[in-house]
Predict the structure.
Amino acid sequence: MPPRRQSFAQFLVGTASLERPSFFYAYAGMWLHLIVSVPLLVFAGIPLLEATSSMAVGSLSLGIIVYSLLSREYGLLVNLVSYVLSLARVIDPSMLGYTFLVIAIIISLASGYMLISSEYRRYTREIYDGDESGVPLWITVCIGTTTVMLFIYGVRLL
């Protein structure tokens, strides 16, 4: 019986020895930020829906920022803009509205796709002995379509 290959999720997080701590810390930091920030914002008087929607995007952005710093991929630091926009929307949702949230979602979605696709290429190269096939085409098309639809929606909000 041939040895079982490591799944993509196991590759991202690493094993018990934390071979890939940058993704693990980013993932753990994202969830910790979301779990702590939403109750704090609700306690501060922000409605639950606004706090959850903004902090979901903010937490994803923060996770990508952590990954960017730990893995030295500084191009992903564009998520600082997304994080600031999601926080600004929580602070004053009536003035900033949904447009800032849509911009933050587009930035996070595109950055998240770039991060996962580069990790997937690394996974296929390391696990499948040099094959650098990228993310399946249907995923790329779905993410691209979603990004364009969000952009059109954001423009309509203006």
Notes: The chain has a mean pLDDT of 77. The CA atoms of residues 13 and 148 lie 30 Å apart. Residues 8-157 form one domain. The helical segments are 8-13, 21-43, 48-71, 79-91, 93-127, 137-157.
